[in-house]
Design goal:
The complex is a heterodimer of chains A (264) and B (262). Chain A contains seven helices and three strands. Chain A is mainly α and 264 residues long. Chain B starts with a helix and ends in an 8-residue tail after the last helix. Chain B has 262 residues and is an all-alpha fold. The chains are: A mainly alpha (264), B mainly alpha (262). The interface between A and B is large, with 85 and 105 residues.
Chain lengths: 264, 262
C-alpha cells in the first residue's frame, strides 16, 4: 500500500472550476469551527450569563425588556398596538420573507453580490433589515430605560422621568388644528380613518394602473405578484410613517374602532 | 525503530477490523479524496467537489455553517445542563444557583450555552442577509429559502423559550412581554381585536382560552409555563428544527450546490 507523503498537486477542473471538498472545504470548516469555539470559550470565561434575583410575579421591573432580538418588535409597540406590533407585523415579516423568491422575478444577481442589477430588491431589504430591524434593536437595547423613555447610554436611568402624554388621535388633531369639527363624531372619524388607510394602500393600485401600459417590468410581474409586493412594501413603510407622525405631530392612532377593540 | 513502527502501521491498516471501518486507503489520490467525503456518514453532507468561490469567506461569511456549529454547541452544553436542572418553579432557580456555584464547570457550561445561543441568533440573521445579498434564493433555490425562513423563526423561538428557564426576574418578565403579545392576537386573543365578539359567539378568546394561554399554559407566566417552555425548548423545537435542517442541507446539494454565478 502506497503511503507516500507527496502532496497531490492542486486539482482544479478547468471546465467547472471545481476543487475537492476533502481537504479544501472540510479544512476551512474545521478552522472556522475551531476559531469560533475558541472565541466562544474566551467569551464564556470572561463574561458570565446573567442571573438576577428569583422570579417574583409581584415585582415588575421597569423597564421590562424582551430578549434583545425581539427589541425591534418591542420598539414598534411604541407606535402600534400589540395586535399589530406583536402579531400581525411579525407574521407579515415571516410570510413576506418567504414570498420573496416568488415576487422577485429579476433573473440577474443570482449567486453574486451586485447593487446595480437589483437596486429595488437590495434597497427594500436593506431598509427592512438594517434600519427597521437591526437599528431598532440597537435603540431598544441601548437607548430605552424606565417607562420605555429615551435615554442615551451614558445617561443614568431616572425612574422618575416623566414625559408628558400629549398624544392625540388623528381626528382630534384635525379638529384642533384645522377646525374640521365633523371629525369629533366617532363614527365619522372611523370612516375617515379607514378611508385614509384605504387611500394609502390604493397608492399601489393607482401606480399600477398608470404605469402598466408603458412598463415592461409591471407587465412581466403581473397583477398578483405586483399586488403582494406593493402591499408588503406599503405595510413596511407604514412604520416609519407612523414614527414621523408621532415625532412631529404627537399623533397616536390614525383610526380607532372601539367597537371591535382595534386601533391603528 | 522507524521500520518497526512502519510495520505496525501496515499491520493495523491491513487488518480486517481496520478495513471493515475505513474502506479506502491513505494515499492522497483523487479517488481517495472523493471517498473521504462520500464514504463518511457525517462528511457526505458535502459534495465531493465544489466550485472554488464557495470556499471564499468573502462570499459565504461561513454564516450558515457557523449557525449549525453553534446549534451543535447548544445541543452538547444543553444536554449537560439538563442533568442538573429541574423545570419546576420551586426548584428551577435553586438549580441554577447550584449549577453556577457547586457543579464543576457548571458556570462555563451555562455561559457557553447562553452565548452560543446568542451567537446562533446573530449568525442566522447574517446568513439570511448574505443569502439575500447574493440573490441565492433565486431559482432553483426558492424552496430552500422558505425552509431557511422557518429555521430562522425556530431559532428565535428556541432562544425565546430558553430565556424563561433560569426562572429569575430577567426571564419571567422578558417572556411576559413576549407572551402578552399572544393575548393581542386578532380573533384569538382575549385582548385583541374582535375578542368580545368571538368570546360572546364562540366561547373562545376568553382570558382562560386564548392564544396567550395556549402559549403560557395559563393566564399569566407562572409555574405551568415553565414546564411548557422546557418541553418546547428541549424537545419539540429542536426536533422540528433538526428535521428542517436535514431538508435545508439536502436541498443545498439537490439544488445545484452552493450558489454562484451561472
Amino acid at each position: 500500500m502506497a503511503t507516500d507523503s507527496k502532496q497531490l498537486p492542486e486539482v482544479i477542473d478547468p471546465k467547472t472550476d471545481k476543487v475537492h471538498s476533502w481537504p479544501h472545504l472540510v479544512r476551512a470548516e474545521f478552522l472556522c469551527a475551531l476559531l469560533s469555539l475558541i472565541g466562544l470559550m474566551v467569551w464564556s470565561l470572561i463574561l458570565d450569563a446573567p442571573l438576577e434575583s428569583a422570579a417574583d410575579p409581584t415585582k415588575t421591573p421597569n423597564p421590562a425588556k424582551a430578549p434583545w432580538y425581539f427589541l425591534g418588535l418591542q420598539e414598534i409597540l411604541v407606535y402600534f398596538d400589540p395586535w399589530m406590533a406583536g402579531v400581525v407585523l411579525p407574521s407579515l415579516i415571516i410570510v413576506g420573507l418567504m414570498v420573496i423568491p416568488y415576487i422577485d422575478i429579476n433573473p440577474n444577481g443570482n449567486g453574486y453580490y451586485t447593487w446595480k442589477e437589483r437596486r429595488f430588491a437590495v434597497s427594500m431589504f436593506c431598509i427592512g433589515f438594517l434600519i427597521l430591524w437591526v437599528l431598532l434593536i440597537i435603540v431598544g437595547v441601548f437607548f430605552r430605560g424606565p417607562g420605555w423613555n429615551f435615554f442615551a447610554p451614558w445617561q443614568p436611568w431616572d425612574t422618575h422621568k416623566v414625559v408628558a402624554l400629549t398624544n392625540i388621535n388623528l381626528n382630534m388633531f384635525l379638529v384642533e388644528n384645522f377646525g374640521l369639527e365633523f371629525l369629533r363624531d366617532p363614527i365619522i372619524a372611523a370612516i375617515f380613518g379607514l378611508g385614509l388607510i384605504g387611500a394609502y394602500y390604493s397608492i399601489g393600485a393607482f401606480y399600477y394602473m398608470v404605469k402598466v401600459k408603458s412598463s415592461k417590468l409591471l407587465q412581466d410581474l403581473g397583477v398578483v405578484r405586483y399586488g403582494i409586493t406593493a402591499f408588503l412594501a406599503l405595510t413596511m413603510f407604514a412604520l416609519p410613517i407612523k414614527m414621523l407622525l408621532r415625532w412631529f405631530f404627537n399623533i397616536k392612532y390614525i383610526v380607532t374602532l372601539p367597537w371591535i377593540n382595534m386601533n391603528i | 525503530m522507524k521500520e518497526k513502527l512502519r510495520a505496525l502501521q501496515e499491520t493495523i491498516v491491513q487488518s480486517d477490523v481496520w478495513k471493515s471501518i475505513f474502506r479506502h486507503g491513505y494515499a492522497d489520490t483523487p479517488r481517495n479524496r472523493i471517498l473521504m467525503v462520500a464514504s463518511n456518514v457525517f462528511l457526505h453532507l458535502h459534495p465531493s467537489k465544489l466550485r472554488r468561490h464557495g470556499l471564499t469567506l468573502r462570499y459565504t461569511w461561513c454564516a450558515g455553517g457557523l449557525t449549525f456549529f453553534f446549534f451543535l454547541v447548544t445541543v452538547v452544553t444543553g444536554i449537560l445542563l439538563m442533568f442538573y436542572y429541574r423545570p419546576v418553579a420551586e426548584y428551577a432557580y435553586n438549580d441554577m444557583k447550584y449549577l453556577q456555584f457547586d457543579i464543576p464547570f457548571g458556570m462555563i457550561t451555562r455561559n457557553m450555552h447562553r452565548w452560543a445561543a446568542h451567537a446562533m441568533v446573530i449568525m442566522v440573521m447574517l446568513h439570511m442577509f448574505r443569502v439575500f445579498m447574493t440573490g441565492s434564493y433565486k431559482p432553483p433555490r426558492e424552496f430552500n429559502w422558505i425552509v431557511g425562513v422557518l429555521l430562522l423563526t425556530l431559532t428565535l423561538l428556541l432562544s425565546f423559550t430558553g430565556y424563561l428557564l433560569p426562572w429569575d426576574q430577567l426571564s419571567i418578565w422578558a417572556v411576559t412581554v413576549g407572551a402578552n403579545m399572544g393575548k393581542a392576537t386578532p380573533g384569538l386573543g382575549s385582548q385583541g381585536p374582535f375578542s368580545e365578539q368571538i368570546a360572546a359567539w364562540f366561547g373562545i378568546a376568553t382570558p382562560r382560552y386564548d392564544a396567550g394561554s395556549l402559549l403560557t399554559a395559563g393566564t399569566v407566566v407562572a409555574a405551568p409555563t415553565l414546564l411548557r417552555f422546557y418541553v418546547l425548548h428541549c424537545i419539540f423545537i429542536p426536533v422540528v428544527a433538526s428535521l428542517l435542517m436535514i431538508v435545508h442541507f439536502w436541498r443545498v446539494r439537490k439544488d445545484g450546490g452552493i450558489s454562484g454565478p451561472m
